[in-house]
């Protein structure tokens, strides 16, 4: 949600939501503008681990207009798990058409590396709670309820590409939320 706000301030018209642990291996992957609706770049037919039909995690291209229509992603998910499934449900509720590659050129080709370091284990503490949140589907949590404090913004460049690192402190009142 914070990335959306800064993309909007920078006059972008779409953004890429990208898992930090998913590394593309093929330059043929298309990070294109999503013409017909959100475009799922990490198609379940190409993802090394997740193959279920409703999977939209990994890498997703979405217009700022569509992301705003969804009220972004829920702010209630802490730790690992279910936030992508919640976003998929928001897309269905708002009747956004998910676009995927029509056919995978070589399904046996390793399109991605999904790197889960053994030294940094996933925080699955809240997975059961996150599953509960998914069932109740709170559409109010999102861009409109986002609370954070900007620490700093770092402008950087790698391989000729400019990018920003936006450091923030998320606000969470432990007395109001069970987990954060």
UniProtKB/TrEMBL annotation:
One of its GO terms (cellular component) is Golgi apparatus. One of its GO terms (biological process) is carbohydrate metabolic process. Coiled coil: none annotated. InterPro entries: Galactosyl_T, Galactosyl_T_C, Nucleotide-diphossugar_trans. The keyword Transferase applies. Residues 39-103 form the Galactosyltransferase C-terminal domain. Keywords: Glycosyltransferase, Transferase. GO terms for molecular function: galactosyltransferase activity. It comes from the Eukaryota. This is Beta-1,4-galactosyltransferase 7 (Trinotate prediction).
């Amino acid at each position: 949600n914070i990335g959306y706000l800064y993309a909007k301030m920078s006059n972008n018209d779409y953004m890429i939501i990208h898992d930090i642990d998913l590394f593309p291996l093929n330059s043929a992957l298309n990070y294109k503008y999503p013409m017909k609706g959100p475009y799922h770049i990490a198609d379940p037919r190409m993802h090394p681990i997740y193959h279920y039909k409703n999977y939209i995690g990994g890498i997703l291209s979405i217009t700022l207009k569509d992301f705003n229509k969804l009220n972004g992603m829920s702010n209630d998910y802490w730790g690992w798990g279910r936030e992508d499934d919640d976003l998929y449900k928001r897309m269905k509720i708002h009747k956004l058409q998910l676009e995927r590659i029509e056919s995978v050129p070589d399904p046996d080709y390793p399109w991605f590396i999904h790197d889960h370091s053994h030294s940094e284990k996933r925080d699955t503490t809240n997975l059961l709670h996150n599953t509960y949140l998914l069932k109740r589907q709170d559409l109010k949590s999102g861009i409109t309820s986002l609370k954070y404090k900007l620490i700093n913004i770092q402008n950087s460049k790698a391989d000729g590409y400019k990018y920003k690192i936006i450091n923030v402190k998320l606000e969470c009142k432990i007395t109001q939320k069970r987990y954060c």
